[in-house]
Amino acid sequence: MKQILKFIIINTVILAIIILILEAGIWFFENNQLVLSKDEYVLKNGFFPFHKGITNFTFDEKIFRDNPIGAEYKNKKPIVIFGCSYAYGFLLDREQTFSYKLSKLTHRTIYNRAYPAWGSAHMLYQTRDENLYKEIPEPEYVIFLSMHDHFRRLYVMTFMSGDILCENFYLRYKEKNGELIQIQNKNKFLNLIKRLYLVQKIHHYYVNNKILKYEDYTNAYDFYAKQVIESKNNMQKHWKNTKFIYIQYDWIKDREILFNKLEDAGYTIIYLPELTNKDLYSKEYVLAKDYHPNENAWNLITPLVAKELKL
Question: Does the model's pTM come out above 0.85?
C-alpha cells in the first residue's frame, strides 16, 4: 500500500512539474509572439501576468460608443446594427464607420450594438435582455453584419492569445434539449483545467482543425443559424414590424446551406462579394495595421447596402 501511495505521489509531482514547465513555456511564447506582432498592450505594459485569474464575460452598456448616431433624424424609424469589430468600426474615427455613413446617407438614427471580438452569441445575449427594448424604439431594420471568423467564435473558450493569457472566458452557448443555454463556467474544478494555457491551445487546435477547417465552416452553419434565428425571434416579440437583414462580409464555402436556413426564418440576405467585384481584403480597403475594414471599404459598401434595401 505504501509503495502504491509513493508511486502516486511521485508521479503526481512529476506531472505537476511537467505541466508547470509547459505552462511557463506557452506563457513566454505567446507573450513573445505578441511583442513580435507589435501588440500595443504588451509593448506599453510588458508581458501579461502568469495566470492572473479567470474573468468571465460581463455586459456593460457603456461600451457602445456614440449611441445613437444621427439622433437628429426623426422622420424615419431607426436602424439597429449588431456584429463585431467590423460593424463597430475598430480603429476608425466615428465619421469613418459604417454606422455613421449609413446614418448620413439614409437620414436615419443608428443604434450600433456591435463590439470588437463579438459574434452571434453577443447578439443573442442582448436580445434576451429586456433593457434592449427599453432603450431602443422599434427599428425599421435590424442588421447583423457577419464575417468568416464568427464561426470559430461559436466554440473557442478564449478569443485570442491575449485572452488566453488573461484567462478571459468567451461568451458561449451550448444546445441542450433544443434550447441554447449560456455556458456559465461555474464549476471550479473544471475551471482549473480549462484555464490552463495548454488546454486552451489544444482546444483552439481542435476547433480550428477538427470542428472547422481552413475556409470550411459548414459544420458550424446549423449552430450559427440557431443563434442568429433565435435573436430575430426574441426581437420580433417586441418589434412586430421590424425587417431583419443578414450581411455576410466575405466569401464562405457552401454559403447556400446557411443562407437558406436564415431566409426560411425571415432574414433578407446581403452577400457583399456579389454586390461588388472589389477585393475587400486588398490594401485599398483594409487598415495598414491589419485586415479590418478602413474608411474606403465603408465608402464603397454603405451605398450598396442602402441601395439593396431601398433606404
Answer: yes
